[in-house]
């Protein structure tokens, strides 16, 4: 239904709500709601709020399609129970009673360590995303270490700067005169930074993109440096050697606010221009030009992404980059410095969020990147609860994850808004409400506005918020922990119960009234102008970041490094079931290969190939392109396996290998080879309904 087709008997209104998705922008969305002749109100149109300083009137290419997701014909609207391999509709009473009985048996026989939650940031809402963990913590279930995305970056940042992790205010970016977009495809993954970058460029800034392949951000930037994957620390050390030798570093800042700079300076000595060029794949003149630009342009703003951390040594690589603004003193200038995340500025009182106060040092822990192994029968997990997450697609070693979820002796419960491949593997699918249907509080990791959404639409079908489901299960199991049953109001009051200056004047009433409220930051927010939050109060250069080659080196058997970065039209696997968005991404997942690699491996443009790694094998169509460099293949997007020729996720190839810091994921670490699929055998591949003809 479009606006023009609203007839006289229909009424419409507009609300402004925060986008709940895992994206730094946390946009304020203008949602047009129309009440049809059937009396049911529906969201028909989504755009950006023009009054919001960050959203600036546009939603991204993905979320304008949210109504199609909300009303997707396959959205689960009733509880489903798998009986003899088929889903049958059951009542909530029956689903919850059955699950509670099974849980009681499992608890009595195997104890709480046999019950695992698996969740991530399908919603960024603090209630439906984080607070619901209270159920598992009250049971004493294992703690899930939420490492799939950000912990390598967090650990790297905290080594240098301590906690909380603070970043440059995006609204200050127009003051920068040199901008490095380093290991981030920001036009895709942080699109509401773009207007600030463009403003800076109008003010005279030069924009550089440092990324192994050419994507939207490289085309937007003034200069693209096609760095070899996993070599960012080498580049930083090589640049720093030139900067220090030229006297471009800020000695006064380093003396006042730096710790152990001498050790860093000594490490740089080993990085001659020739060696840096050899390791990074950049030319000597590229490195020299970048060093000069960095050394002589103040303020310099560096936007780093989590992307570059997804390598074996990704923590050290990111850490090296984040030290540059301390070397150059950029933190003292408005618009200068580095942003990994702005999330640390949201100084909420999180002590009892998700009943975190119940976690004990003896509580067993499961690193979420190691789900495939955690679900092996001998590990003793008997019940798996998945919410806000799609592990059958997004977790490493996804074929083994799928096998674990499907174990006949495993109770697998999936709370979902979409009939994902994870949901299809479940014993129970519990229909979840969307952000249009439940209230929540949202922080951001790309700006400094805290926002609140009311529940706007009634739930579709019998969908229920995650918080309702875990409250109902808690009652059935006799859980007495009060925080599990908190209302939105109670949680809001708790989270805002702090004297922290960033939250001064922010009350539940103000949030309700205004929807989105800027944190009470100082007029000039220069978080590390005088040091950091380490024990010494200084930016720590030791342990010195070093360059290390990955253990899994390329060789004749595995000549390509596979990168699997985000797609422009999906948000992780969210939106991967909408035809209009899979079409915009080319209809099916494709592997980008450099012409010379294609020639060597005898693969042709448009042909199907097997992509083989040490973990698994998938079938994909080849796109030959010089957007990638030699020795690197790129598969954009965590597509639904259902959209691929073989039904598998790209993560059938990726391994549980953890990063050097923070136990993070290594999605860009995989070495692969390509094996052409015999054209005569291409028709033998199983047919999958999502593949576009
Ligand atoms: N459209 C869209 N937006 C998204 C997402 C999405 O799926 N789609 N996902 C959201 C989520 S969950 C996150 S965590 C964020 C960030 O999501 P990330 O996956 O961290 O993506 P980026 O930060 O953009 O970084 C990806 C870029 O890093 C590059 N890269 C890979 N290895 C290296 C390396 O060794 N060195 C350097 N310099 N670069 C490297 C890749 O080529 C790619 O261009 O984006 C969020 N926004
Ligand atoms: N190969 C490869 N794999 C990757 C990445 C990569 O770059 N390459 N990126 C990684 C990164 S950075 C991340 S963050 C993870 C993300 O992985 P996930 O956190 O799994 O993110 P999504 O794939 O978007 O799936 C989120 C699911 O949550 C559901 N959901 C949303 N809101 C709610 C709600 O309120 N209630 C319930 N019950 N469900 C809800 C959505 O319908 C959706 O199916 O993937 C990782 N996987
Ligand atoms: S996904 Fe990101 S860019 Fe798109 S509307 Fe949501 S917050 Fe904004
Ligand atoms: Mo992420």
From TrEMBL:
GO terms for MF: iron-sulfur cluster binding; metal ion binding; molybdopterin cofactor binding; oxidoreductase activity
Name listed for the protein in its UniProt record: Anaerobic dehydrogenase, typically selenocysteine-containing
Xref: CDD domains: MopB_3 (cd02766), MopB_CT_3 (cd02786)
Entry keyword Iron-sulfur: yes
Residue ranges of domain 4Fe-4S Mo/W bis-MGD-type in the record: 12-74
SMART domains on file: Molybdop_Fe4S4
InterPro entries per record: Asp_de-COase-like_dom_sf (IPR009010), MoPterin_dinucl-bd_dom (IPR006657), Mopterin_OxRdtase (IPR006656), Mopterin_OxRdtase_4Fe-4S_dom (IPR006963), Prok_Mopterin_Oxidored (IPR050612), YoaE_C (IPR037920)
Pfam family, one: Molydop_binding
Family: Belongs to the prokaryotic molybdopterin-containing oxidoreductase family.
PANTHER family per the UniProt record, alphabetical: OXIDOREDUCTASE YYAE-RELATED (PTHR43742:SF6), TRIMETHYLAMINE-N-OXIDE REDUCTASE (PTHR43742)
Keyword annotations of the record: Iron, Iron-sulfur, Metal-binding
């Amino acid at each position: 239904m479009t606006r023009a087709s609203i007839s006289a008997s229909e009424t419409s209104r507009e609300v402004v709500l925060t986008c709940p998705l895992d994206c730094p922008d946390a946009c304020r969305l203008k949602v047009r709601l129309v009440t049809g002749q059937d009396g049911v109100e529906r969201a028909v149109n989504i755009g950006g709020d023009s009054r919001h300083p960050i959203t600036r009137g546009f939603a991204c290419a993905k979320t304008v399609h949210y109504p199609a997701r909300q009303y997707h014909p396959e959205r689960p609207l009733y509880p489903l129970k798998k009986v003899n391999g088929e889903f049958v509709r059951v009542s909530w009473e029956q689903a919850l009673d059955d699950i509670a009985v099974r849980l009681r048996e499992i608890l009595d026989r195997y104890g709480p360590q046999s019950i695992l939650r698996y969740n991530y940031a399908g919603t960024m809402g603090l209630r439906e995303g984080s607070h619901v963990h209270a159920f598992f913590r009250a049971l004493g279930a294992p703690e899930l270490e939420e490492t799939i995305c950000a912990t390598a970056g967090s650990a790297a940042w905290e080594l240098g700067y301590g906690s909380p992790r603070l970043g440059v205010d995006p609204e200050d970016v127009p003051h920068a005169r040199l901008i490095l977009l380093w290991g981030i495809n920001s036009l895709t993954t942080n699109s509401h930074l773009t207007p600030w970058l463009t403003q800076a460029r109008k003010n005279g800034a030069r924009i550089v993109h440092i990324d192994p392949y050419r994507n939207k951000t490289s085309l937007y930037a003034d200069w693209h440096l096609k760095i070899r994957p996993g070599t960012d620390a080498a580049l930083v050390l090589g640049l720093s050697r030139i900067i220090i030798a030229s006297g471009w570093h800020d000695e006064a800042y380093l003396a006042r606010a730096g710790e152990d700079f001498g050790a860093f300076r000594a490490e740089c000595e080993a990085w001659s221009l020739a060696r840096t060029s050899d390791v990074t794949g950049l030319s000597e003149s590229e490195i020299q030009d970048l060093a000069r630009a960095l050394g002589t342009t103040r303020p310099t703003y560096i936007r780093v992404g989590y992307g570059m951390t997804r390598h074996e040594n990704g923590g050290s690589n990111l850490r090296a980059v984040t030290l540059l603004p301390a070397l150059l003193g950029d933190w003292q200038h408005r618009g200068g410095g580095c942003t990994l995340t702005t999330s640390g500025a949201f100084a909420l009182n999180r002590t009892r969020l998700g009943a975190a106060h119940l976690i004990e040092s003896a509580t067993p822990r499961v690193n979420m990147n190691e789900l495939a192994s955690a679900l092996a029968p001998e590990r003793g997990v008997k019940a798996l609860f998945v919410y806000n997450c799609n592990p059958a697609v997004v977790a490493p070693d996804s074929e083994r994850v799928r096998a674990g979820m499907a174990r006949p002796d495993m109770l697998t419960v999936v709370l979902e808004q979409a009939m994902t491949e994870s949901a299809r593997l479940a014993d129970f699918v519990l229909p979840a409400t969307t952000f249009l249907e439940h209230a929540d509080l949202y922080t951001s990791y790309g700006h400094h506005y805290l926002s609140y959404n009311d529940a706007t639409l009634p739930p579709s079908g019998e969908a229920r918020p995650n918080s309702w489901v875990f409250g109902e299960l808690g009652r059935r199991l006799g859980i007495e922990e009060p925080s599990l049953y908190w209302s939105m109001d109670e949680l809001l009051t708790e989270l805002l119960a702090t004297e922290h200056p960033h939250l001064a004047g922010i009350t539940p009433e103000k949030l309700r009234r205004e929807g989105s409220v800027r944190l009470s930051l100082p007029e000039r927010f220069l978080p590390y102008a005088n040091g950091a939050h380490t024990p010494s109060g200084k930016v720590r250069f030791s342990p010195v970041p070093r360059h290390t080659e990955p253990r899994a080196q390329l060789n004749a058997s595995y000549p390509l490094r596979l990168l699997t970065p985000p797609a422009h039209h999906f948000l992780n696997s969210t939106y991967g079931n909408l035809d209009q968005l899979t079409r915009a991404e080319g209809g099916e997942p494709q592997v980008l290969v450099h012409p010379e690699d294609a020639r060597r491996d005898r693969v042709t443009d448009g042909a199907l190939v097997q992509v083989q790694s040490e973990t698994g094998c998938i079938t994909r169509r080849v796109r030959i392109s010089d957007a990638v460099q030699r020795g690197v293949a790129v598969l954009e997007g965590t597509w639904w396996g259902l959209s691929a020729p073989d039904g598998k996720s790209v993560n059938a190839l990726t391994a549980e290998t953890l990063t050097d810091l923070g136990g993070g994921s290594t999605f860009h670490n995989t070495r692969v080879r390509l094996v052409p699929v015999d054209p005569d055998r291409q028709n033998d591949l199983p047919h999958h309904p999502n593949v576009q003809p």
